Amino acid sequence: MSISRRQFLHSSLLVAPTFAFMPIVLKRAVAASTSESFGAQANMPGTLVVVQMKGGNDGLNTLVPYTDNRYYDLRGTLALPQSSVLPLDSEVGLHPAMAKMKEVWDGGHLAIVEGVGYPSPSFSHFESMDIWQSADPDSNFKEGWLGRYFEGLQVTQSEPFQGMAIGGKLPLSLRSSKVSVPTVQNIRNYQIKADSKFPDAAQDRVQAVLNLFAASPKDAPYSVLLDNTMDAAYRSSLALQAAHTRYQPGAVYPDTKLADALKLLAEAITNDLGVKVGHVSIGGFDTHATQPDRHAALLSELSEAMASFYLDLKVHGKDKEVVIMTWSEFGRRVTTNASDGTDHGTAGPMFFLGTSVKGGLYGERPSLSNLGDGNFRFTTDFRSVYATAFEQVLGVPSDAMLGRRYDTLPIIG
Amino acid sequence: MQDLDLPVEQPVTEGLNRRNFLLRAGALGLSAISFELLLSACNTPTPIPIATAAATATATPTPTASPSRATSTPLPTSTPRPTATPTPKQASLPTPDPELTKIGHLLRRAGFGASQADYDMFSAMGLSATVDYLLDYDFVDNSGLDSRLASLGLDLNRLGDLQQWWLLRMVYTKRPLQEKMVLFWHSLLTSSFRRTGQGPFMHTQNELFRAHALGKYDVLLKAVSRDPAMLIWLDSRSNNKRAPNENYSRELMELFTMGLGNYTEVDVRESARAFTGWGLQKREFIFRSGQHDYDDKRFLGQVGKFDGDDIVDIIIDHPATAEFICRKLFAFFGYDDPGSEVIAPLAEEFKSSGYSVKAVVRKILTSPEFYSARAYRTKIKSPTELVVGAFHSLAVETDGRAMRGLTDNMGQSLFAPPDVAGWEGGEAWINSSTLLERLNFFNKLTTSRNQSIQFDPSKLVFEEGISSPEAALDYLAFLLLDGSLPEEERRVLQLYLISLNDHFGAQHADEKLRSLAYLVMSSPEYQLA
Questions:
Q1: What ipTM describes this predicted complex?
Q2: Which long-range contacts (C-beta less than 8 Å, at least 24 apart) are formed by A254-258?
Q3: pTM of the model
């Protein structure tokens, strides 16, 4: 049973009239955002699942120009043999570890945007991740690009699961000062546990915890953050625990961290918890050394987990409503180093996957004969891709959230 | 500069201050309720006679009448030991002694919180001597810790054992600042078990940080550049003059010493050349002259046949480095985003002391900024601080087995940071998942009734001569929160105490104390250091 704070306060007044002067201070400090509200348009998929590839994915060995001699000249020992590449057309193909993605491509539901980046690229992981996540190369925004989207929704804090991040940390892209996005790592622990010896006292104790957070003076440091997070945690934990008991996976997921994460997202999505944006991540792409095996394992994990997730959604009839998008903070240097690896680079490809996705190659291929300091020159600004996600997946205008108008790509439809 | 005692004096909200509240609470008969509960809860065998406890709290400079405690240092008369005398007047909140509040603050930041024994010892020493004690830890005997750890027979090549070992060190060390600095270095000069794999690497690095915890920064940087875990983590071991690997070179400047904006991509490539040939053989550092680039490098405006040590020497002299490391240190101990007027004198100290970390930390811990309202309870505890602090403050006995992985789900896997930048910290520690994990940890700690985690709340409060739930609440608020539990939250807990009787009747004082400890730790304030 769940008790809202307000309900509790009313009932406590009846029980303990001596505290009649209390409740004024227990009002929640933060209300839902009221300005710039918008609702999603009909006929849009409505749900975006973002897959972050942390560390800087080697885009050149992900979408491989397998008939371009310059690729073999520049990449040397790290170049993938022509015969191993999974061809998408006569010029490019997927890394051999991405057989599952190739199947989705063959089904017509995988889109790849080539050469995505931004001007004056940063070679720092952390600066570049901040730029991608805030959608702001000047790093002026404190909110993430999707955090700004949550702030604009008509219903914000009262529906806890509009955003859902899987992992130990809420990524910057989903952060905002007003909306606390549930972050789930481990379903078993995603609840307020009781003293197993005295289960009868559990509900009162939970209520006391909620009241403590609601009662904390809101001018104290981090008080609003803690209160909003507690509120979101409690309500989302009830919803997710209920969903968890109902959920029947529609696919066999591989035993990997990314697959576990996507499966958790699938539980929430297939149970109609209202997820509009989901976020998962896979780390380890910073392949400065011994790249071949590591990169293959990562792309295989990515490809298989995404394929299982997609199948699960299909079985539950949700595949038209969800679009998956991948990104990484940068690609890697075109030439290899002596450690059998690659150093930090620039632009790379982004993947879109879903039944609403029109499969194909988008954007312009970055040139291997016109490099800048050994790196690709980007051809599509990542904010054009974000504008596409806003307008064609989530069905909301993008200008205000990106600071100006960016052209979209005709990926969805 | 506002002083520490200021937040205590501030009206809590809407003109309702503590004193006000207490008058009202008294008038509303709250104390009478607690008196009744107190008697019912008082069913533990050997309560300290009330007269003794009351005397402790007033003037007699003797320690509490606990036979088990050997403390011989008298407590200052103003110690905010909550009283046990069940009169309305005595139901008041402890009036925090500013010096004791500062000591509590110091021990949270320069250590892992304070137990009653710490308060007894350090309040007798006084603040200034406590700072010296923390800094000059070489004089402090830590052999008790060594024998405690030795008895466990851990295999420090394995991640779980290593986490258990280090967390236990932090809980039971007599040199808290040394362990706190090891945590600082691990968070700054990161490496990860996930990359090194099983082996001695992360333990070796941890001991390196312990040996250099408050040493000279250039010495530490040269040592860590040769550290096996680092050589693996940032790929130096395969850095070869044929085609240098930039990984270590870049992060050395971006994350360890100067920060973005103080060097160019050319500097990254040139420095990578200087570190070529710094490799690893049989788990030890080796210089492979055949792979080293002996030619001239142009680095930060200087030209020479530099090797890695030369690079560190050039970097350490760069003005950005002093400011960068002092900013990191101040943010770790004091507060985020310190102004340049705070950092400049620290950077000066860093340079004039020959890059001494100890000199900078001493200056921080004795600065007015460190004891200002801007610093006091304004940082979110890291999971490590939270977990270690809870065990330490409550004097919980544990073999640490249950501590393995305990901080992982709260967002801090020791020996396995998320990436080379370490943990983001601050508000990133808090999300719905990590907050639930925190609550569930408090539940585990306070409701454990087994050998692995020995939390004995009755002993804790009865040693202090406490025999009422109200006084127990005061005491826990003092011990865990410096007494700074906001009135509104205090009332929530008082209500809860009343509701407890529905579940437990007049019995189970122990259970009542357990859930009270759980709730005080679950408060928003306890999440802050």
A1: 0.83
A2: A254/A301, A254/A304, A254/A305, A254/A308, A256/A301, A256/A304, A256/A305, A257/A282, A257/A301, A258/A51, A258/A282, A258/A301, A258/A302, A258/A305
A3: 0.83
